[in-house]
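[recover] target loaded
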Protein backbone atom coordinates (compact mmCIF):
# COMPACT_ATOMS: atom_id res chain seq x y z
CA UNK A 1 0.00 0.00 0.00
CA UNK A 2 1.40 3.40 -1.05
CA UNK A 3 2.14 5.69 1.87
CA UNK A 4 3.24 9.12 0.68
CA UNK A 5 6.38 10.66 2.08
CA UNK A 6 4.85 14.13 1.75
CA UNK A 7 1.73 15.66 0.26
CA UNK A 8 1.88 18.75 -1.93
CA UNK A 9 -1.60 20.24 -2.16
CA UNK A 10 -3.47 23.16 -3.64
CA UNK A 11 -5.46 24.98 -0.99
CA UNK A 12 -8.80 24.81 -2.79
CA UNK A 13 -8.92 20.99 -2.71
CA UNK A 14 -10.64 21.48 0.64
CA UNK A 15 -13.72 22.67 -1.23
CA UNK A 16 -14.21 19.19 -2.70
CA UNK A 17 -15.44 16.03 -1.00
CA UNK A 18 -12.52 13.92 -2.25
CA UNK A 19 -10.04 16.62 -1.24
CA UNK A 20 -11.37 16.58 2.32
CA UNK A 21 -11.30 12.77 2.41
CA UNK A 22 -7.67 12.60 1.27
CA UNK A 23 -6.50 15.24 3.72
CA UNK A 24 -8.19 13.28 6.50
CA UNK A 25 -6.82 9.93 5.28
CA UNK A 26 -3.27 11.26 5.25
CA UNK A 27 -3.53 13.53 8.24
CA UNK A 28 -0.26 12.16 9.68
CA UNK A 29 1.70 12.83 6.45
CA UNK A 30 3.72 16.09 6.22
CA UNK A 31 2.03 18.62 3.94
CA UNK A 32 3.25 21.43 1.77
CA UNK A 33 0.83 23.92 0.27
CA UNK A 34 1.45 24.77 -3.39
CA UNK A 35 0.07 27.36 -5.77
CA UNK A 36 -0.18 25.16 -8.83
CA UNK A 37 0.24 21.41 -9.33
CA UNK A 38 1.80 22.08 -12.74
CA UNK A 39 4.72 23.96 -11.36
CA UNK A 40 6.25 22.73 -8.12
CA UNK A 41 9.56 24.45 -7.63
CA UNK A 42 10.91 21.84 -5.24
CA UNK A 43 10.33 19.04 -7.79
CA UNK A 44 11.79 20.97 -10.69
CA UNK A 45 15.07 21.36 -8.86
CA UNK A 46 15.54 17.67 -8.14
CA UNK A 47 18.21 15.71 -9.99
CA UNK A 48 17.54 12.64 -12.14
CA UNK A 49 19.05 10.49 -9.41
CA UNK A 50 16.16 11.43 -7.12
CA UNK A 51 13.54 10.22 -9.60
CA UNK A 52 12.28 7.33 -7.45
CA UNK A 53 12.36 9.33 -4.24
CA UNK A 54 10.34 12.07 -5.93
CA UNK A 55 7.66 9.51 -6.84
CA UNK A 56 7.09 8.82 -3.16
CA UNK A 57 5.27 12.13 -2.89
CA UNK A 58 1.62 12.68 -3.63
CA UNK A 59 0.35 15.82 -5.33
CA UNK A 60 -3.30 16.77 -4.92
CA UNK A 61 -4.92 19.53 -6.92
CA UNK A 62 -7.85 20.60 -9.05
CA UNK A 63 -7.79 19.75 -12.75
CA UNK A 64 -8.11 22.83 -14.89
CA UNK A 65 -7.76 21.35 -18.39
CA UNK A 66 -10.74 19.33 -19.53
CA UNK A 67 -10.06 19.08 -23.25
CA UNK A 68 -11.11 15.79 -24.86
CA UNK A 69 -8.75 14.61 -27.62
CA UNK A 70 -10.15 12.57 -30.50
CA UNK A 71 -8.82 9.04 -30.72
CA UNK A 72 -9.42 6.23 -33.17
CA UNK A 73 -8.04 3.13 -31.53
CA UNK A 74 -10.11 1.59 -28.75
CA UNK A 75 -11.98 4.79 -27.89
CA UNK A 76 -13.42 7.91 -29.47
CA UNK A 77 -11.91 10.38 -27.01
CA UNK A 78 -8.97 10.54 -24.63
CA UNK A 79 -10.33 12.24 -21.56
CA UNK A 80 -8.22 13.93 -18.88
CA UNK A 81 -9.51 12.31 -15.74
CA UNK A 82 -8.82 12.02 -12.01
CA UNK A 83 -5.06 11.49 -12.05
CA UNK A 84 -1.87 11.96 -13.94
CA UNK A 85 1.47 10.19 -13.41
CA UNK A 86 2.09 7.13 -11.30
CA UNK A 87 3.96 5.80 -8.27
CA UNK A 88 5.44 2.92 -10.28
CA UNK A 89 8.44 3.40 -12.57
CA UNK A 90 8.34 1.62 -15.91
CA UNK A 91 11.54 2.63 -17.65
CA UNK A 92 9.79 3.52 -20.91
CA UNK A 93 6.76 5.24 -19.32
CA UNK A 94 5.17 7.63 -21.78
CA UNK A 95 4.27 9.99 -18.97
CA UNK A 96 7.93 10.79 -18.44
CA UNK A 97 7.71 13.56 -21.00
CA UNK A 98 9.39 15.92 -18.60
CA UNK A 99 10.26 14.01 -15.49
CA UNK A 100 10.03 16.79 -12.98
CA UNK A 101 6.70 17.98 -14.22
CA UNK A 102 4.46 15.05 -14.87
CA UNK A 103 5.76 11.64 -13.87
CA UNK A 104 4.85 11.64 -10.16
CA UNK A 105 1.29 10.91 -9.13
CA UNK A 106 -1.07 13.86 -9.17
CA UNK A 107 -4.66 13.38 -8.08
CA UNK A 108 -7.40 15.78 -9.11
CA UNK A 109 -10.30 16.07 -6.73
CA UNK A 110 -12.92 17.75 -8.96
CA UNK A 111 -14.21 14.41 -10.22
CA UNK A 112 -17.86 15.52 -10.27
CA UNK A 113 -17.05 18.17 -12.90
CA UNK A 114 -15.12 15.67 -15.04
CA UNK A 115 -17.84 13.02 -14.82
CA UNK A 116 -20.52 15.56 -15.71
CA UNK A 117 -18.67 16.53 -18.88
CA UNK A 118 -18.27 12.90 -19.96
CA UNK A 119 -21.97 12.17 -19.44
CA UNK A 120 -23.02 15.39 -21.18
CA UNK A 121 -20.81 14.66 -24.22
CA UNK A 122 -21.97 11.07 -24.34
CA UNK A 123 -25.68 11.85 -24.20
CA UNK A 124 -25.42 14.67 -26.73
CA UNK A 125 -23.75 12.46 -29.32
CA UNK A 126 -25.78 10.59 -31.91
CA UNK A 127 -23.38 7.71 -31.89
CA UNK A 128 -22.40 5.54 -28.94
CA UNK A 129 -19.06 6.95 -27.73
CA UNK A 130 -16.25 5.28 -25.78
CA UNK A 131 -14.18 7.44 -23.47
CA UNK A 132 -10.59 6.49 -22.58
CA UNK A 133 -10.21 7.74 -19.01
CA UNK A 134 -6.85 6.13 -18.20
CA UNK A 135 -4.37 7.52 -20.69
CA UNK A 136 -2.60 9.79 -18.19
CA UNK A 137 -2.14 7.41 -15.27
CA UNK A 138 -3.05 3.94 -14.02
CA UNK A 139 -6.53 4.09 -12.55
CA UNK A 140 -6.36 0.72 -10.76
CA UNK A 141 -3.31 1.98 -8.89
CA UNK A 142 -4.93 5.37 -8.28
CA UNK A 143 -8.03 3.62 -6.97
CA UNK A 144 -6.05 2.14 -4.05
CA UNK A 145 -5.56 5.72 -2.86
CA UNK A 146 -8.82 7.43 -3.84
CA UNK A 147 -11.50 4.75 -4.33
CA UNK A 148 -12.37 6.67 -7.50
CA UNK A 149 -13.20 3.68 -9.70
CA UNK A 150 -16.27 2.38 -7.84
CA UNK A 151 -17.41 6.01 -7.63
CA UNK A 152 -16.84 6.47 -11.39
CA UNK A 153 -18.61 3.27 -12.39
CA UNK A 154 -21.57 3.91 -10.07
CA UNK A 155 -21.97 7.44 -11.43
CA UNK A 156 -21.58 6.51 -15.08
CA UNK A 157 -23.89 3.53 -15.11
CA UNK A 158 -27.03 5.65 -15.37
CA UNK A 159 -25.85 7.72 -18.32
CA UNK A 160 -28.16 6.99 -21.24
CA UNK A 161 -25.30 6.12 -23.57
CA UNK A 162 -21.58 5.53 -23.85
CA UNK A 163 -18.78 3.43 -22.46
CA UNK A 164 -15.67 4.00 -20.39
CA UNK A 165 -12.36 2.24 -20.89
CA UNK A 166 -8.91 2.24 -19.29
CA UNK A 167 -5.72 0.14 -19.36
CA UNK A 168 -3.80 -1.08 -16.33
CA UNK A 169 -0.69 -2.94 -15.22
CA UNK A 170 -2.06 -3.74 -11.77
CA UNK A 171 -4.11 -6.53 -10.22
CA UNK A 172 -5.89 -4.79 -7.30
CA UNK A 173 -9.36 -5.21 -8.80
CA UNK A 174 -11.31 -6.52 -5.79
CA UNK A 175 -13.14 -3.20 -5.36
CA UNK A 176 -14.62 -3.54 -8.83
CA UNK A 177 -15.96 -7.06 -8.69
CA UNK A 178 -19.33 -6.44 -7.04
CA UNK A 179 -20.40 -3.26 -8.77
CA UNK A 180 -23.43 -2.88 -11.00
CA UNK A 181 -21.52 -1.58 -14.06
CA UNK A 182 -24.26 -2.26 -16.61
CA UNK A 183 -21.67 -3.51 -19.13
CA UNK A 184 -20.47 0.05 -19.68
CA UNK A 185 -16.84 -0.41 -18.73
CA UNK A 186 -14.07 -2.05 -20.78
CA UNK A 187 -10.90 -2.89 -18.84
CA UNK A 188 -7.68 -3.61 -20.75
CA UNK A 189 -4.78 -5.39 -19.06
CA UNK A 190 -1.34 -4.50 -20.29
CA UNK A 191 1.09 -7.44 -20.26
CA UNK A 192 4.70 -8.22 -20.97
CA UNK A 193 6.91 -11.29 -20.42
CA UNK A 194 7.66 -11.75 -16.71
CA UNK A 195 11.36 -11.14 -17.30
CA UNK A 196 10.63 -7.75 -18.84
CA UNK A 197 8.20 -6.85 -16.04
CA UNK A 198 10.94 -7.72 -13.59
CA UNK A 199 13.72 -5.77 -15.27
CA UNK A 200 11.81 -2.83 -16.71
CA UNK A 201 8.35 -2.29 -15.17
CA UNK A 202 9.41 -1.50 -11.61
CA UNK A 203 6.64 -1.41 -9.03
CA UNK A 204 3.89 -2.98 -11.18
CA UNK A 205 2.02 -6.27 -10.66
CA UNK A 206 3.46 -9.64 -11.68
CA UNK A 207 2.24 -11.25 -14.91
CA UNK A 208 0.46 -14.12 -13.13
CA UNK A 209 -1.45 -11.64 -10.94
CA UNK A 210 -2.47 -9.55 -13.96
CA UNK A 211 -3.84 -12.66 -15.69
CA UNK A 212 -5.78 -13.64 -12.55
CA UNK A 213 -7.19 -10.12 -12.34
CA UNK A 214 -8.48 -10.16 -15.92
CA UNK A 215 -10.11 -13.57 -15.32
CA UNK A 216 -11.89 -12.15 -12.26
CA UNK A 217 -13.01 -9.01 -14.07
CA UNK A 218 -14.53 -11.09 -16.85
CA UNK A 219 -16.37 -13.23 -14.28
CA UNK A 220 -17.73 -9.97 -12.88
CA UNK A 221 -19.19 -9.19 -16.31
CA UNK A 222 -16.75 -6.58 -17.61
CA UNK A 223 -15.68 -6.55 -21.22
CA UNK A 224 -11.92 -7.10 -21.23
CA UNK A 225 -8.96 -6.69 -23.55
CA UNK A 226 -5.24 -7.41 -23.50
CA UNK A 227 -2.55 -4.98 -24.52
CA UNK A 228 0.74 -6.60 -25.38
CA UNK A 229 2.62 -3.44 -24.67
CA UNK A 230 5.08 -2.15 -25.10
CA UNK A 231 6.82 -4.82 -27.13
CA UNK A 232 10.53 -4.46 -26.34
CA UNK A 233 12.97 -6.14 -28.70
CA UNK A 234 15.49 -7.42 -26.16
CA UNK A 235 17.99 -10.12 -27.20
CA UNK A 236 15.74 -13.16 -26.89
CA UNK A 237 12.46 -11.37 -27.60
CA UNK A 238 11.08 -14.06 -29.91
CA UNK A 239 11.26 -16.70 -27.18
CA UNK A 240 9.96 -14.34 -24.50
CA UNK A 241 6.92 -13.14 -26.45
CA UNK A 242 6.08 -16.63 -27.73
CA UNK A 243 6.11 -17.85 -24.12
CA UNK A 244 3.96 -14.91 -23.08
CA UNK A 245 1.30 -15.57 -25.74
CA UNK A 246 1.34 -19.26 -24.90
CA UNK A 247 0.99 -18.52 -21.17
CA UNK A 248 -1.97 -16.24 -21.89
CA UNK A 249 -3.66 -18.94 -23.93
CA UNK A 250 -3.19 -21.45 -21.10
CA UNK A 251 -4.08 -19.25 -18.13
CA UNK A 252 -6.89 -17.03 -19.41
CA UNK A 253 -10.26 -18.66 -18.84
CA UNK A 254 -12.46 -19.85 -21.71
CA UNK A 255 -14.91 -17.16 -20.66
CA UNK A 256 -12.25 -14.47 -21.24
CA UNK A 257 -11.04 -15.97 -24.52
CA UNK A 258 -14.53 -16.07 -25.98
CA UNK A 259 -14.59 -12.38 -26.95
CA UNK A 260 -11.18 -11.09 -25.91
CA UNK A 261 -9.51 -8.50 -28.14
CA UNK A 262 -5.85 -7.51 -28.35
CA UNK A 263 -3.82 -4.37 -28.98
CA UNK A 264 -0.09 -4.61 -29.75
CA UNK A 265 2.16 -1.61 -29.29
CA UNK A 266 5.89 -1.42 -29.96
CA UNK A 267 8.02 0.55 -27.56
CA UNK A 268 9.09 4.07 -28.37
CA UNK A 269 11.77 5.72 -26.31
CA UNK A 270 13.36 9.10 -25.88
CA UNK A 271 16.47 11.03 -24.98
CA UNK A 272 14.78 12.10 -21.72
CA UNK A 273 14.28 8.43 -20.80
CA UNK A 274 17.94 7.58 -21.41
CA UNK A 275 19.08 10.49 -19.25
CA UNK A 276 16.75 9.69 -16.36
CA UNK A 277 17.24 5.94 -16.47
CA UNK A 278 21.04 5.96 -16.58
CA UNK A 279 21.07 8.02 -13.38
CA UNK A 280 18.00 6.74 -11.57
CA UNK A 281 18.57 3.04 -12.41
CA UNK A 282 22.31 2.71 -13.06
CA UNK A 283 22.20 -1.10 -12.86
CA UNK A 284 19.16 -1.59 -15.11
CA UNK A 285 19.26 -2.76 -18.72
CA UNK A 286 19.63 -0.15 -21.44
CA UNK A 287 16.47 0.02 -23.54
CA UNK A 288 18.03 2.24 -26.18
CA UNK A 289 19.59 0.14 -28.93
CA UNK A 290 21.23 2.27 -31.56
CA UNK A 291 21.48 -0.60 -34.05
CA UNK A 292 17.75 -1.28 -33.91
CA UNK A 293 16.30 2.18 -33.32
CA UNK A 294 15.99 5.30 -35.36
CA UNK A 295 14.95 8.93 -34.71
CA UNK A 296 11.29 9.83 -34.71
CA UNK A 297 10.88 13.55 -34.21
CA UNK A 298 12.80 15.57 -31.70
CA UNK A 299 14.59 13.41 -29.13
CA UNK A 300 12.36 10.39 -29.76
CA UNK A 301 13.30 6.91 -30.94
CA UNK A 302 11.43 4.00 -32.47
CA UNK A 303 12.41 0.62 -33.91
CA UNK A 304 13.63 0.79 -37.53
CA UNK A 305 10.88 0.05 -40.02
CA UNK A 306 12.21 -3.29 -41.35
CA UNK A 307 12.96 -4.59 -37.83
CA UNK A 308 9.55 -3.56 -36.55
CA UNK A 309 7.74 -5.03 -39.57
CA UNK A 310 9.52 -8.33 -39.21
CA UNK A 311 8.62 -8.40 -35.51
CA UNK A 312 4.98 -7.63 -36.33
CA UNK A 313 4.83 -10.56 -38.76
CA UNK A 314 6.30 -12.85 -36.12
CA UNK A 315 3.88 -11.70 -33.40
CA UNK A 316 0.88 -12.04 -35.73
CA UNK A 317 1.96 -15.60 -36.53
CA UNK A 318 2.12 -16.49 -32.83
CA UNK A 319 -1.23 -14.82 -32.18
CA UNK A 320 -2.73 -16.71 -35.06
CA UNK A 321 -1.47 -19.95 -33.57
CA UNK A 322 -2.68 -19.40 -29.98
CA UNK A 323 -5.61 -16.96 -30.46
CA UNK A 324 -6.91 -17.67 -33.98
CA UNK A 325 -10.41 -16.42 -33.21
CA UNK A 326 -9.55 -13.22 -31.35
CA UNK A 327 -9.38 -9.80 -32.92
CA UNK A 328 -6.15 -7.79 -32.94
CA UNK A 329 -7.52 -4.26 -33.06
CA UNK A 330 -4.24 -2.74 -34.19
CA UNK A 331 -0.46 -3.08 -34.13
CA UNK A 332 1.45 0.17 -33.84
S1 LIG B 1 2.28 1.66 -14.63
FE1 LIG B 1 1.79 2.88 -16.44
S2 LIG B 1 1.69 4.99 -15.71
FE2 LIG B 1 2.77 3.78 -14.15
S3 LIG B 1 4.97 4.01 -14.64
FE3 LIG B 1 4.22 2.15 -15.64
S4 LIG B 1 3.64 2.81 -17.73
FE4 LIG B 1 3.80 4.66 -16.44
Amino acid sequence: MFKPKAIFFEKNIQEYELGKQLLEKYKEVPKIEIENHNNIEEMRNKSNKEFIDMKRNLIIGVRKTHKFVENHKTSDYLVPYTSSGCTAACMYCYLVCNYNKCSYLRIFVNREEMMEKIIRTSEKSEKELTFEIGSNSDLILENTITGNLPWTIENFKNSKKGKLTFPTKFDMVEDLLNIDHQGKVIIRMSVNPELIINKVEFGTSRLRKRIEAINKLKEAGYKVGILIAPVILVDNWKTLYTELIKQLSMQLTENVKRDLFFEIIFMTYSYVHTKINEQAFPDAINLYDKEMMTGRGKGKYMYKKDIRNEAEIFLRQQMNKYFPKNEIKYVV
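[recover] notes: The chain has a mean pLDDT of 95.
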